[in-house]
Specification:
The complex is a heterodimer of chains A (about 250) and B (about 325). Chain A is of the alpha/beta class. Chain A has a single domain, classed as 3-Layer(aba) Sandwich (Rossmann fold), CATH 3.40.50. Chain A has helices spanning about 35-55, 70-75, 95-110, 130-135, 190-200, 240-245, and strands spanning about 1-5, 10, 35, 55-65, 80-85, 115-120, 140-145, 145-150, 155-160, 165-170, 175-180, 200-205, 215-220, 230-235. Helix content of chain A is about 25%, strand content about 30%. In chain A, a hairpin with a 2-residue loop joins strand 9 (about 155-160) and strand 10 (about 165-170). The radius of gyration of chain A is 21 Å and the shape is globular. The termini of chain A are far apart. Chain B is α/β, with parallel strands linked by helices and about 325 residues long. Chain B has 2 domains: about 1-180, 3-Layer(aba) Sandwich (Rossmann fold), CATH 3.40.50.620; about 195-315, Rossmann fold (3-Layer(aba) Sandwich). In chain B, about 25% of the residues lie in helices and about 25% in strands. Chain B has helices at about 15-25, 45-50, 70-85, 95-110, 175-180, 215-225, 235, 270-275, 305-315; strands at about 1-5, 10, 10-15, 35-40, 55-60, 90, 110-120, 125-130, 135-140, 145-150, 165-170, 185-190, 200-205, 230, 260, 280-285, 295-300. In chain B, helix 2 (about 45-50) links the parallel strand 4 (about 35-40) and strand 5. The chains are: A alpha/beta (about 250), B alpha/beta (about 325). Chains A and B meet through helix 3, helix 4, strand 7, strand 9 and strand 10 of A and helix 4, strand 7, strand 9, strand 12 and helix 7 of B.
Chain lengths: ~250, ~325
């Protein structure tokens, strides 16, 4: 089977964000970058499915030129090739991102049996790119999965819902969005890193359409940095804490 | 008119959806509220929704729709939008709420603003929404009509019941095979019994500082406070505790009455999952760790000394 997995380069967030001078974004000048945790799992799911059933895997990212780093990370854990849709760093909203991915799929000439996404990106948290791609391709989609299996051309997904796990089944070709916990991501090996350098990464530069959800500015919420009452150091704080338990009615 | 999507599961109303009603009322108190319930199993839920202030409730059914399907809910909402032309469609920012709106937005070709904390309708509509699971707020313009938005969970209180009824209208959307294919096929009981994280009133949560073998006192304290044990991502990645116990942006988002963070430094993604707790207590050796920035109370010190003594003191206080 052929699998496509879509990932997004996001800053490795510290405790509290610093903003750029114009207040339009996070100041990432002193931050490292990674992929969203859900997508790390999506990559692992893709690699495992192909280990199990045979086939090939492609990783795609829409982002700045440096997003090649995240693509190479995925190639290092076993993805076969990459597609980088290069942007100038401006934000693409979910519709624009989904449109660019759909175009790139058409251009790739491949008919992916399964297209994997993270349920939502760590930064924009839009929860929708995968579902939009599924609709554009008229494919069934399952979202928020914490378990993904394929057998006999059927995608079986499951996810926790209260005290149960919901089980879904749709025929391939399909789209699935997964969450952290769907698979524990492996670490890249040194030979994996070396192989990753030689794997192909195809590039194209799509044109960004006007954003229909257009970010104007960002701010750090006030709840970050509330007054903390230090009850004590070491065991001396315990009786005060038991008083807190009493006052809020948990004992 | 505002359309609110009310989730139900096998005839049980999703309590979180009641927060979406409160939010909708705050967006435009003068606009009539219309509710959508999907699935024949939601008939009784639909019949009782009037008491939360809806003037009309629409129940979408189909012979082949026997369980939840996000795509089917999105399709039903899209049909209502075309017949009723609401100014906004609002759902709760739960997994289900967000995915239903994503399907709706995809079907209508409209943008969707998830995880909103404020919404001012207009051309364009202005929203404030949570990025980074609430660690960063974004002001944005949302173009197109209706405005499709989910509201951050635990922002608004649930709508209060009144002595009122709504007209319930059943309708039969043209579901596609793909919409129907996405239904829940079966359910498996989660192996662990006890209280689930999302429902727990008290959570005693452990991080890297607890260590692989150190969760015993946390379990004891959770038991004494009628709560449950949670943990950070480091702990589940190390395999110390099951993923089902992970609190955070990528685990479970929780809002208990009391959250006790033991040996948790407070990475952004963890804080995103526990920030809405009513009271947060941190037990940590580092007074400058990020968890302190969200904690109401803290004890600075070694949890391995503090927790056994805290268990004993709690036991005494409870008289057992």
């Amino acid at each position: 089977m052929e699998i496509l997995v879509c990932i997004k380069r996001v800053p490795l967030s510290g405790a509290k964000f610093s903003l750029t001078a114009d207040g339009r974004d996070i100041d990432t000048s002193r931050l490292g970058f990674t992929v969203s945790p859900h997508e790390e799992c999506a990559v692992e799911v893709a690699v495992r499915l192909v280990e199990q059933h045979g086939g090939s895997t492609t990783v795609l990212s829409l982002g700045v030129e440096d997003a090649e780093e995240q693509i190479r990370d995925a190639l290092a854990v076993g993805i076969d090739e990459g597609i980088l849709l290069v942007t100038d760093g401006e934000e693409w909203d979910a519709q624009a991102t989904a449109g660019a991915i759909v175009d790139a799929i058409a251009e790739s000439g491949k008919s992916f049996d399964l297209i994997l996404f993270g349920n939502e990106s760590a930064d924009a948290s839009g929860n929708q790119v995968g579902i939009r791609v599924a609709h554009a391709l008229s494919r069934p989609t399952l979202s928020g999965l914490k378990g993904v299996q394929v057998s006999d051309g059927v995608l079986v997904g499951e996810r926790p819902a209260g005290s149960v796990r919901e089980v879904f089944e749709v025929s391939l070709p399909a789209v699935a969005t997964v969450k952290d916990g769907a698979a524990i991501p492996r670490y890249p090996s040194v030979p994996g890193r070396i192989r990753a350098k030689k794997k192909p990464v195809h590039r194209s530069t799509p044109t960004r359409p006007l954003s229909l959800l257009a970010k104007q500015s960002v701010s750090v919420p006030e709840s970050v940095g509330k007054q903390t009452k230090i009850l004590g150091s070491g065991p001396e704080g315990i009786s005060a804490l038991v008083d807190v338990f009493r006052s809020i009615g948990v004992i | 008119m505002l359309l609110v999507i009310v989730d139900q599961d096998r005839g049980v109303l999703d309590e979180l959806s009641l927060q979406a009603i409160t939010f909708a009322n705050s967006v435009d108190p003068s606009a009539p509220l219309v509710g959508l319930v999907v699935g024949a199993s939601g008939r009784e839920v639909a019949d009782t929704l009037g008491r939360f202030g809806f003037t009309d409730v629409y129940l979408a059914t189909a012979p082949d729709l026997n369980d939840y399907s996000a795509a089917a809910c999105g399709r039903a909402a899209a049909e209502l939008v075309s017949t009723l032309a609401p100014t906004a469609v609002i759902a709760i920012g739960s997994q289900r709420g967000n995915e239903i709106l994503a399907h709706l937005g995809a079907i209508l070709g409209l943008p969707v603003a998830t995880e909103c904390t404020s919404l001012s309708l207009g051309s364009p509509t202005h929203v404030v929404r949570a990025r980074w699971a609430g660690n960063l707020m974004e002001s944005a313009e949302l173009h197109g009509s209706p405005a499709i938005c989910s509201v951050v969970s635990h922002l608004a209180p649930p709508a209060a019941a009144m002595n009122q009824t709504a007209l319930v209208t059943e309708f039969f959307p043209n579901f596609t095979d793909t919409d129907l294919a996405g239904q829940v096929r079966s359910r498996i009981a989660e192996s662990e019994g006890g209280t689930s994280l999302a429902d727990a009133k008290v959570i005693v949560s452990g991080g890297r500082g607890v260590g692989a073998e150190g969760f015993g006192p946390l379990e004891e304290l959770a038991h004494l406070l009628a709560g449950t044990v949670g943990c950070s991502r480091v702990v589940t990645s190390a395999g110390w505790r099951p993923h089902a116990e992970q609190v955070g942006q990528t685990g479970t988002k929780v809002a208990p009455d009391l959250y006790i963070a033991c040996g948790i430094s407070g990475a952004t993604q963890h804080l995103a999952g526990c920030r809405n707790s009513k009271t947060i207590v941190a037990i940590n050796t580092d007074p400058d760790s990020p968890i302190m920035a969200v904690a109401d109370y803290a004890i600075v010190g070694d949890l391995h000394q503090i927790l056994p003594a805290l268990v004993a003191a709690t036991r005494t206080a409870r008289g057992i």
